[in-house]
Specification:
This protein is mostly helical and 139 residues long. The protein is built from six helices and no strands.
Amino acid sequence: MIAAKCEWSYIPVGGSLPNTEQKNLAFGAAASMVHPATGYSVVRSLSEAPKYASVIANILKRSHSKDIFTRGSSTGNISMQAWNTLWPQERKRQRSFFLFGLALILELDIEGIRTFFHTFFRLPNWDVAGISRIDTVFS
C-alpha cells in the first residue's frame, strides 16, 4: 500500500478592509494587511509597525493629557486616526487595484492563467516590481 501525504494551507487573499468605525485596533493580517495577490503580509506589517505604534502612542499621550477618557468629552473616534495611518486613501486605492487584478485572474480558465503569467513575467523588471510591491503608490 502506498500512502500519499497531502499538505494544505489557506492564505487569506482579498477580503474586506477593517471596519474603521470600531474602536478596537488591529494590525497585520488581522487588519487586512495581506497582499491580495501573494498572501504576503510580513513585509508590510514590519515596515508599518514603527509609524503605527508612534501614532497610537501620540494619540494616547494627547488623550491622557486632555483627560478625554475621564471627562467623556471625546473629539470623535480617536481610533479613526490610527486606522487612517494604516489605511490612508492611497493604500485603499492600491488595494482596490490589486483586488481588481485578483478578480480578473480568478475569472480566467487555465489557459488564460498560463497566458497571463507567461506575458506578465516577460514585462520589464521595473514593471513587474512596481506592480508586485506592496508599497507601490497609485494616484
